[in-house]
Amino acid sequence: MGIKITNVGPVSTIQDAGRTGFMAFGFQASGAMDKTAFNIANILVGNDKDESAIEMTLVGISGRFTSDAVIAITGADVSPEINGGSIPRYMAINVKEGDVLTCSFAKSGCRAYLAVQGGFYLKKVMGSYSTNIKCGIGGYMGRPLKNGDLLYFNSVSPLTGAIENRKTDIPVPPAFPVEIRAVLGPQDDYFTDGGIAALFGGEYKVTNDSDRMGIKLDGAAVESKNGVDIISDGIPLGAIQIPASGKPIIMAADRQTVGGYAKIAVVISSDMPLLAQLKPGDTLTFKRASLEEAQRAYFDGIEKINALQAKFGRLIPPPPAAAAKSGVAPQKSIMERIKKLWKG
Fold first, then answer.
1. Same-domain pairing of 204 and 275
2. Which of 4, 152, 197, 300 has its CB 3.0 to 4.6 Å from that of 121, i.e. a possible disulfide?
3. How many domains does the chain have?
4. For residue range 112-122, what is the model confidence (pLDDT) as tens digits?
């Protein structure tokens, strides 16, 4: 009982808050690119804010529901419709068995999220539902969704009568260029004063080869002092790498765990949702932020999401089936294989 996909769009994957604690073993964190829109979608349908959801890129999915459900769509405006009639975004919606969901190319934004009450009936891998395409784990068979896939729901009896007024204001799309705040470092000493000024003084455009791994930018080249090669080290979310071309690359959810290019700055986590909604051709500027400003913005964002969760409340607890299949076995199996490889 769930939804059968008839049109999946360019890239649609199952994501949650991400797979934390395994980057030391070479596993990317993955997770939703726009965590704010992702959290809101789950809260609206009565889930925990970090329950699994479908992340859709540029074009929303279409499909037929094989059971009743409560859904919410947030993020990019993909013009969702049920049976040919428009439905609101950022609002919990009742759907019936046989209803047909159709979505279009994003009018604004880049990534949309479809959450369903109770979440999807899937196995956690290393504590997460998130799809890691490169490693082929998590989500639905470790891959992007395809036309014809049937996704089952955890909840077979959705609380359709309990969703009145579960809606929020739809965010206003930002004006371009979008201002993105970043904290200087950790390898800013590799760059000239002119290079740093170029990054924070110029306008950049998102290129066509941007993806969940990295958002590549075209604009003024960032000048280094003596090259940008470093001994590979860890890459945080939002790190702005400068390759030999001098053109910045912002590391995103599926970023590699380590890298050998100098990182001139790191986008603050609170602005990553803005980046997640930039399509190829959209423009941005960087504004230098202090560590204190980044911390304040982070905690402000957490408080807003927690307040929204408290306002609406959870409609249903995590289903026993999900709890039973989510735990230790997949994680233990993979960790044992890693330890075996190291010993060998």
1. yes
2. 152
3. 2
4. 999 999 999 99
